[in-house]
Amino acid sequence: MADVSAGLLPVISVDRSATTPLHRQVYAGFRDAILRGDLAAGQQVPSSRALAAELAISRFPVLDAYSQLLAEGYFESRVGSGTFVSASLRGQSGQIRASVHAPVAPRHTSRRSRLFPPYEQNPWRHGWGSFGVHQPALDQFPFEVWSKLLARYSRIFRLHPADNIHPLGLGPFREAICSYLRTARAVRCDPSQIMVVSGSQQALDITTRVLLDSGDAAWIEEPCYPLVRSLVHGSGCRTIPVPVDEEGLNVAAGIQRCPAARVAFVTPSHHYALGYTMSAGRRFQLLEWARQSSAWIVEDDYDSEYRFESMPIPSLQGLDPSGSVIYIGTFSKVLRPSLRLGYMVIPPDLVDQFTAVRFTMDIFPPYLFQEVLTEFMHAGHFARHIRRMRALYKSRRTALVESLHAEFGDFFQIHGAEAGMHLTVTLPEGYSDVEIATRAAREKLWLWPLSGCYFGERPRHGFILGFANTREEDAPAAVRHLRQIIGI
Questions:
Q1: Does the structure show a pLDDT above 60 at 165?
Q2: What structural domains and CATH numbers belong to the chain?
Q3: Fewest CB atoms within 10 A around its CB: which of 4, 129, 339, 429?
């Protein structure tokens, strides 16, 4: 520690062994001295050359520190005189000194922000491995093909990039999505109706902004994807839980509970989390309710590409004669979660409103992955990958189901094993899925508690078990490990 100059109170010290760069140490020393009131407004500080010599360091870190202090208004430079603590701080030293240690009074935040549940660092959310939900078989992803396409489009220089900017997304990519949806999901659409989004969650967010006002009622499935409930509740709307059974959403129960709901959020092809498929009768009943009530249906078709006992179930949107369905899909489940790339099909009369909201939120989606995925789809890589993964996931699903039966017998009830990338098991009375999942995470087993998907006061307990990322040969050991953790 060295006295910087005669007549100056503060002492600046540097530690060459610290990870903090020298210029940040010098900067922090002066800034803290000013905030404490040890350096007064108008007081001269040593020249950069003199301070560097005093501290036995290069002049460059001192120059960098002085430059930052000048930029932030703590220092001012006077031609021919030197560097001084800024005169604009005169009379504020006492206030600054008091405010450094003063408790901060509560500040206003929006009512809407307080409606959202806090983000929870649940241990089962952050592991990668056996039973992890939303985890595809990344070791089977065609990385070589993808990397070549990514490198190629990263090198392409766009002379007129502004020509590509559109809130709905890249035109050729929307055409490719449209062609895929018409063929694979029986969706009735035109490229002008497709909006590219950052995953299905952004699609749901935009949808609630367009369709719902504070105080409106919305049907949500019981149980449901928890973030749907969070979005609806966070928008200031009334969430109306509608029970789900083996035929999907119980439309009659929804009508009885709230016939005038503005929106119904559904996962008809593979219910999240129980895995049921909505029956044809329920589908037509739901569409008729929407038509008669002038309501909207939001169809989240998150992993419908994978069905193992039959052909994929056509979309609800494809049955809709009145344009009541907003259709949402994602590439995160079928390709890579880190892509954060999804899409929505918007009824023609809503396109302008959705576009306006999207433009205000983030102008337009990033283009690089859109360009890469467009060629990936046109070249047939996407379709081949889906076919390969459908066969692989069927084998992994079968291995998990057989292992569950072998180890647990009828202890578990298995739901939704016919499709998707996960199945669900329900526990007998007396077991806490959260407590078991927390223990399991400490042993690198990633169980998602089913109870968190329920809105009511009597949730069912069980686990959502992802199988896409669990190899067939690993399933028996993982299930035995699960049995040990449960203790039966």
A1: yes
A2: 2-101 (1.10.10.10), 158-379 (3.40.640.10), 384-486 (3.90.1150.10)
A3: 429
